[in-house]
Amino acid sequence: MSQLLPPRFQTVQLEPGLPFILQAEISTGPYHAACCQFDASAFTPQLVRQFGLVLPDPLRHAVKKRQAEYVASRWLVAKLLARSNLPNFQLFNRPDRSPIWPTGKVGSLSHHDHKIFTLIDSGPVWVGNDIERMLTQEKAAELRSMIMTEEELALLTQSGLSLSQATTLVFSVKETLYKAVYPAVQTLFGFEQVTLIAIDPHAGKVTVQLSTVALPKASRQARWDIHFWLTDTEVMSWVVQGAL
Predict the structure, then answer these.
(1) How far apart are CA 130 and CA 111, in angstroms?
(2) What are the pLDDT digits (tens) for 178-211?
(3) pTM of the entire predicted model
(4) How many whole angstroms separate alpha carbon 119 and alpha carbon 33?
(5) Do 208 and 226 meet the contact criterion of CB atoms below 8 Å apart?
(6) Residues with Cβ < 8 Å from 44, sequence gap 6 or more?
(7) From CA 9, how far away is CA 198, in angstroms rounded?
(8) 74, exposed or middle or buried, with CB in 10 Å at 0-12, 13-18, 19+?
(9) Is 95 helix (H, G, I), strand (E, B) or coil?
(10) DSSP, res 134
(11) Which of 142, 131, 121, 124 is nearest to 36 (CA)?
């Protein structure tokens, strides 16, 4: 089996434990992270009770795919937190959909149609992550102007990225940054509040500049480094930024 997490993550395999979980792994370093691949078509509602989960009211009558995403993600988070002596934890969300992590923990959770990626750390830190399926060239051309500026596109294409790769990467990086800072800023903001100013494709790292709207008051630096891993089919990005 190929590794689900980026190559820089040191991983151990998890026993899937649920019939629709195809593969799962936990990182032993340098980040406290986990990833799993799932098959929504193999999910049945009975698995919710089997795992000991409670479905929030909005999900009780949701389509099977949405329930499968929820159960897979909560199963993965519980497995990761159990490594920190927090067994049987179920992650719930606030009305604004932000996750309610255990006291002393800060985390981020992302998924696409068959893969879950979560990253958890101990405070005081800002944590964000994202995983995206690679956009097609046609979809990238349609969305590009809403996601990045001409200057950002030029920077990425000069580094060798296609329009599809550049657009997907910028979307993912800005989503990761948003997830990291939202608990601190408590403000909805758009892609224009985060500007990509540098990329090191060999190190898998971009540098972004945060506007005053997006910058947490406790942060003394407006430039943050976001890590990424880009393949032919997807982009994963993440940040663990210490509070200064």
Answers:
(1) 7
(2) 999 999 999 999 999 999 999 999 999 999 999 9
(3) 0.95
(4) 4
(5) yes
(6) 19
(7) 23
(8) buried
(9) coil
(10) P
(11) 131
